[in-house]
Amino acid sequence: MLAPVILAASRSDKMRRFISAAPGTKQVVDRFIAGETVDQVVPVIEDAAAKGLEVTLDVVGEDITTPEQAADARDAYLELVGRLKDLGLGTKAEMSVKLSMFGQSLDGGHELALANVRPVVEAAAAIGTTVTLDAEDHTTLDSMFAIHEELRKDFPQTGCVIQAYLFRTEDDARRLAAAGSRVRIVKGAYKEPASVAYQDKAEIDKAYVRILRILMEGEGYPMIGSHDPRLIAIAQELGRRAGRKLDEYEFQMLYGIRSEEHLRLAAEGHRMRVYTAYGTDWYGYFMRRLAEKPANLLFFGRSILTKG
């Protein structure tokens, strides 16, 4: 029941200032955010690679209000691609992008976001990796899917994300489960109205399994974004039933959450990718992590009390 409150707080400048100044905030933010700069995140990539893990990198920051800020976001990703190239890590690290960072919500935002994300996708392809377009709130999805379709004409490995709690997603999954596609399925982390999304956790879990079955039985490459042990086990069983080899789908989990499970799945022969966020504008990302799991909020509360 706290999740809607937390998600509302994620859009509050007053709460942003309060939480940023709280004594225990840094300890908790450091659990979910790998660093503020490319230099700080490079050791995380190298450590993951040494452990048999892969990563997807998210330069956090969504409150873009000018075309100049959108261009800065593009350049931050291009800087990241350059460092991955220099270090020879392109095949171990892909990128996740939110089109809101690339100007999607501004005037002419669809065209602006496409123009900004294309050079990032092109640069990623040049070093042997790719980009996945993250899903945001439901009002942005038609634009995201259209940009995804456009990018795949030249860069067919470009991935996208679908969210199980939305009513539309089963139809989206059927359309996307085609040969060559890369689709990450998550439960969803935005506050959506009952007119477009399931509100009950059990209904969301049922939808997740239905959608996962569509992806596993399709011809694309499913990416299972979940920390839920039951859904992970179901995904493994659906993969077996569909006759998929272990390298024909992958698991994805967040940096800082269930790290031992990352290693267990990799040791079993699964592809395991860690969603690794970094950057200075961490607030919106951080608040969604708190909203997703009550234990995260309790951890944050204890940190504030013990540091205050």
Short précis:
The chain has 308 residues and is of the alpha/beta class. It is 52% helix and 14% strand. The longest helix has 21 residues, at 67-87.
Describe this structure in words.
By secondary structure, the protein is an alpha/beta fold. The protein is 52% helix and 14% strand. It is built from 13 helices and 8 strands. Strands 1-2-3-4-5-6-7-8 form an 8-stranded parallel barrel, surrounded by 7 helices. Helix 1 runs antiparallel to helix 12, helix 6 runs parallel beside helix 7 and helix 9 runs parallel beside helix 10. The protein is globular and about 45 Å long. The C terminus is likely disordered.
Question: What summary fits the major beta sheet?
Answer: 8 strands, parallel, barrel
Describe the global form: globular
Assembly category: single chain
Uncertain ranges: 303-308
Q: What is the terminal separation in angstroms?
A: 26 Å
Q: What is the β-strand count?
A: 8
| Approximate strand percentage | 5-15%
Strand order of the largest sheet: 1-2-3-4-5-6-7-8
Order of helices and strands: HHHHEHEHEHEHEHEHEHEHH
Q: Tally the helices.
A: 13
Rg estimate, integer Å = 18 Å
Name the structural class.
alpha/beta
Mean pLDDT: 88
Q: Percent range for helical residues?
A: 40-55%
